[in-house]
């Protein structure tokens, strides 16, 4: 059996690393209980404690139903033109204001805010200059708060709220400004035809279907919390393609064959049977965004390798061991080979690849995340040739809670 650790009668953990065990545990993941505040304590509870990704049971079902629409697969497909608009605009700005004009791209830093502005427009509609300034002011404030969440310490305990600290002043300022921004954004968006998603979300609060904390924390999750997650997925994809030019060329040919009209292109972007999708998955396999999954417990006992794991025991996935070292990947598990995600192999291995979770409860934003990542990669491959400078080490940013590369790649505009 894989590692099972028990600390007296207080706490139990089961680390999962095999496909068979994952199927047994996650077949009813919609009935699982996610760790309270992600086991991260009081400060986490103030930012994300009631978001759709962390609540459980009936509350999760109600909140998910109330906020799901913009993240559904059909909705993600309809947003591809908006994503393309943002991608083109972002790269135009990089050419005029960044190092891209010199043929260099820092995948994590230079592309960091792109998914943020895409999701912001999906949620709030077209942003006014004042709204853009408000969000730009909130981003560093929210980033500093979350660094304290990850660092832990005293902020894990509820009594820390009473300490007259700079951190608590920052937290109060953020919470007031975040609520004010969303209230103003909702009032503005009611004049749109059709109204932006924020209006529907606010109406759910007015009806009593979800709470104000459910709304504000889920919006925070969609924008701020997932900023690091999405850019982690984007940036490692760019690095792997830069290191494997043969896949750039193959992707360029595949894109040319599916770009004849907008409808075909939208269908292509969201298909999981393409080389583009396979490249994205293979990058995520080799560079999982987090070392371990969010702890969650099953509602009933599970029998694994003859051992009875009691109900309420937290299960955690060792993502590196599962994604890279699992025997199903064969002798080349450490090698970048996107073809392993094409054909029948992919279905057989679905419980050996952690990315959006397993079973009925998976990441709500997975379709939109894929639409953003694939559209961006498509733009890069069509318009730029990427490479890794000789001798450049693949460094990760040690200050990020999500795996991000810390490096500059060569990125030369095609036809120039």
UniProtKB/TrEMBL annotation:
Keyword Nucleotidyltransferase found: no
Entry-linked InterPro entries: Cyt_P450, Cyt_P450_CS, Cyt_P450_E_grp-I, Cyt_P450_sf, Cytochrome_P450_monoxygenase
Record carries keyword Acetylation: no
Any GO MF annotation of the entry: monooxygenase activity
Amino-acid positions noted as binding heme in the UniProt annotation, renumbered to this chain: 363
Keywords, ordered alphabetically: Heme, Iron, Metal-binding, Monooxygenase, Oxidoreductase
GO annotation (BP), single: secondary metabolite biosynthetic process
Cofactor: heme
Family: Belongs to the cytochrome P450 family.
Protein name: Uu.00g118330.m01.CDS01
Organism: Anthostomella pinea
Lineage: Eukaryota, Fungi, Dikarya, Ascomycota, Pezizomycotina
């Amino acid at each position: 059996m894989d590692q099972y650790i028990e600390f007296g009668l207080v706490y139990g953990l089961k680390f999962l690393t095999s496909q068979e065990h994952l199927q047994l545990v996650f077949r009813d993941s919609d009935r699982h209980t996610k760790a309270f505040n992600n086991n991260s304590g009081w400060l986490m509870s103030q930012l994300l404690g009631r978001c759709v990704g962390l609540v459980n049971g009936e509350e999760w079902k109600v909140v998910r139903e109330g906020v799901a629409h913009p993240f559904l697969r059909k909705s993600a497909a309809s947003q591809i033109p908006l994503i393309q608009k943002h991608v083109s605009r972002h790269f135009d700005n990089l050419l005029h204001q960044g190092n891209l004009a010199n043929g260099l791209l820092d995948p994590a830093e230079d592309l960091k805010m792109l998914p943020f502005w895409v999701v912001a427009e999906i949620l709030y509609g077209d942003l006014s200059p004042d709204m853009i300034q408000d969000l730009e002011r909130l981003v560093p404030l929210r980033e500093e708060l979350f660094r304290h969440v990850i660092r832990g310490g005293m902020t894990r305990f509820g009594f820390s709220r009473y300490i007259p600290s700079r951190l608590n002043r920052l937290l109060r300022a953020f919470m007031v400004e975040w609520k004010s921004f969303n209230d103003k954004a909702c009032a503005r968006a009611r004049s749109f035809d059709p109204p932006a998603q924020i209006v529907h979300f606010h109406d759910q609060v007015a009806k009593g279907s979800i709470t104000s904390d459910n709304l504000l924390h889920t919006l925070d999750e969609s924008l701020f919390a997932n900023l690091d997650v999405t850019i982690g997925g984007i940036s490692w994809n760019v690095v792997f393609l830069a290191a494997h030019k043969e896949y750039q060329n193959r992707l360029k040919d595949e894109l040319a064959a599916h770009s004849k009209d907008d409808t075909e292109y939208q269908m292509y972007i969201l298909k999981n049977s393409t080389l583009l999708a396979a490249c994205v998955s293979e990058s995520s396999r080799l560079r999982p965004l987090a070392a371990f999954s969010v702890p969650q417990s099953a509602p009933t006992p599970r029998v694994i390798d003859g051992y009875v794991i009691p109900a309420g025991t937290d299960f955690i996935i060792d993502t590196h061991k599962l994604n890279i070292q699992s025997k199903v990947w064969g002798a080349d598990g450490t090698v970048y080979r996107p073809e392993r995600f094409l054909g029948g192999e992919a279905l057989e291995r679905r419980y050996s690849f952690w990315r959006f979770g397993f079973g009925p409860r998976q990441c709500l934003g997975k379709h939109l995340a894929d639409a953003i990542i694939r559209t961006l990669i498509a733009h890069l491959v069509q318009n730029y040739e990427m490479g890794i400078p000789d001798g450049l080490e693949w460094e990760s940013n040690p200050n990020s809670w999500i795996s991000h590369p810390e490096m500059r790649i060569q990125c030369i505009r095609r036809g120039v």
